[in-house]
Amino acid sequence: MSMLPCRVLCLLAIVLCCVGVVHANAAAPAVLTGHEERIKEAQEKVKETLRLKEECEKVIKAAEDAAYAAQVFAVTTENNLETIAADPEKVEKTKSEGRKFIDNTTQAAERAKEVADQTTASAKETYDISVLFVGQEEEQMKAEEAAENAENAARAVKEAEDRAITYVKLVEEAIKKLDAAVVAAKEKEKEKQVEPQPQPQEQTNETSLPPTNATITNGITRNDGSSSPALLRVPLLLLLLLSVLGCMAVC
C-alpha cells in the first residue's frame, strides 16, 4: 500500500512537467510574433521615408518653377514701370497677375515646408528603428540609407521654400513700386494741366515796327521848308533888304 502514493506523486510530477513544457512552447511563438511585428512596422516606415523623399523632389520642382515665374514677373514689371503706369488697363492687369504669382508661390512654399517637416521626422524615426534589423545587415543598411537620403531631400526642400518666399517678397515690392509710379504719373499730369501756357506776342515796341506811310509823310512834311517856321522868316528878310536897297537907290 505504501507504493501507491509514490506512484501517484510521480504521475503528478510528470503531468506538471508536461504542462510546463507545453506553456513554454506556446509562449515562444508569441514572443517571436511580437518581434516580427516590430520588424514589419520598421519596414513600413522605411517605405514611407522613401516615398517622402520622392515627394520632396516633386515639391522642389514646383517651388522652383513658381519662384522663377515670380522672379521674371518682378524684373519685367520694374523694368517697365513708367510704361505700365501710363496705361490704367495695364496697371490693373499687371497687379492682378502679380497677386496670382504671390498666391501660387506662397502655396508652393507652404507645401514645401509641410513635406520637409514630414520627411525630417520620418528620417529620424527610420534611424531610430534601424536597430531592429540587428542580424539583418542588408535591411539595416537600407533603412539608414533611406533616412540619410530623406534628410538631404528635406534640406533641399527647405532651400527651395526659402527661395520661393524671397521671390514672393520681390513681387510684392514690384507692385508697390508700380503703385508709386502711378501716383507720380498722376501728379505729373496735374502739373501739366495747371502750368500757364505762353501767349503769342501781339504787340511790339513802336521802335521795332517798320515805318508806316503816315510816319514817312510826317517826316517829309517836317523837312519841307514851307512848313518850317525858320524858313518862313527868310523871305521876309529878303523883302526887307530889297526895300532898303530901293530907298538907297532913290536917294
From TrEMBL:
Keywords: Coiled coil, Signal. The keyword Signal applies. Residues 32-66 form a coiled coil. This is Surface protein TolT. Residues 1-24 form the signal peptide. It comes from the Eukaryota. Residues 188-224 are annotated as: Disordered. It comes from Trypanosoma theileri. Residues 204-224 have a biased composition (Polar residues).
